[in-house]
């Protein structure tokens, strides 16, 4: 019983810490003048130091909490199925869902540790894993909740999960849609679209920046002579 009470704090802590982290980094970045206060991207509020350090630390902690939550949920379903007869192979479905859940948690780590201004391609991949694969995890859990009533969860919990999954899906669709609309209307403004094309564009840019840092341009002898003569 004691162990169950402890495990309850993992999903609760993740649910509280995630919005709290975003609010803190938002207030911090706005206060330092790193972003405008009118609805910046979450990634933008955790891009520049010192708030980026806090942003990465907290997202790592949240990812660990989510990993434990996914594992506990899978064990809960396995224990239930070992004690009763179920209509579907829920343990196997739970294993598949867990893969998506673990991948989403890892994506959160990528978002926190690879800022959009440093390695944008990895940052976008992490965001796609966190939101996209995390959304798939939500829908699978919602579907399994139907077959776990009423012993594991109530009908009310099932409804809440389906509503949450639908809202998350709607937010993803709106984000992608408005990113395309903004990009089409502002061709001269740099914008990172949440698409495969956007990730590849950022990957090419990151690769070019890495090459420039690894092989800085050398100054010609004529340029060096000019600089020396100016010093004299």
- Kindly provide the radius of gyration, computed on alpha-carbon positions and rounded to a whole number of angstroms: 23 Å
Q: Give me the strand/helix succession.
A: HHHHHHHHH
Biggest sheet layout: none
Structural class: mainly alpha
Percent strand: under 5%
Chain-averaged pLDDT: 82
Shape: elongated
Number of strands: 0
N- and C-termini, Cα separation: 81 Å
Please bin the fraction of helical residues: over 70%
Question: Which regions contain 5 or more consecutive residues with pLDDT less than 50?
Answer: none
Treating each run of at least 4 consecutive H or I residues as one helix, how many helices?
A: 9
Brief rundown of the structure:
The protein has 232 residues and is mostly helical.
How is the topology of this model organized?
Blueprint: H1 2-7, H2 9-31, H3 42-45, H4 51-83, H5 90-113, H6 120-148, H7 155-185, H8 196-214, H9 221-231
Helix pairs in contact: 2-4, 4-5, 5-6, 6-7, 6-8
List keywords for this structure.
single chain; 232 residues; mainly alpha; elongated
3D structure, described in words:
With 232 residues, this protein is an all-alpha fold. It is built from 9 helices and no strands. Helix 5 (90-113) runs antiparallel to helix 6 and helix 6 runs antiparallel to helix 7 (155-185). The longest helix has 33 residues, at 51-83. It starts with a helix and ends with a helix.
């Amino acid at each position: 019983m004691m162990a169950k009470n402890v495990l309850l704090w993992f999903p609760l802590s993740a649910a509280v810490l995630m919005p709290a982290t975003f609010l803190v980094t938002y207030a911090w970045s706005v206060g330092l003048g790193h972003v405008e206060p009118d609805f910046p991207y979450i990634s933008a509020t955790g891009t520049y130091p010192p708030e980026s350090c806090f942003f990465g630390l907290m997202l790592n902690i949240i990812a660990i909490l989510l990993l434990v939550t996914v594992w506990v949920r899978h064990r809960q379903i396995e224990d239930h199925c070992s004690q009763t007869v179920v209509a579907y192979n829920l343990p196997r479905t739970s294993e598949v869902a867990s893969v998506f859940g673990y991948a989403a948690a890892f994506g959160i780590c990528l978002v926190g540790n690879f800022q959009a201004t440093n390695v944008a391609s990895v940052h976008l991949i992490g965001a796609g894993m966190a939101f996209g694969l995390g959304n798939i995890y939500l829908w699978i859990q919602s579907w399994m909740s139907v077959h776990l009533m009423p012993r594991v969860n109530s009908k009310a919990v099932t409804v809440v999960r389906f509503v949450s999954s639908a809202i998350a899906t709607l937010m993803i669709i709106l984000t992608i849609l408005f990113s395309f609309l903004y990009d089409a209307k502002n061709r001269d403004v740099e914008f990172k679209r949440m698409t495969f094309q956007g990730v590849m564009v950022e990957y090419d840019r990151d690769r070019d920046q890495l090459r420039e840092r690894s092989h800085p341009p050398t100054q010609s002898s004529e340029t060096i002579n000019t600089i020396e003569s100016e010093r004299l």
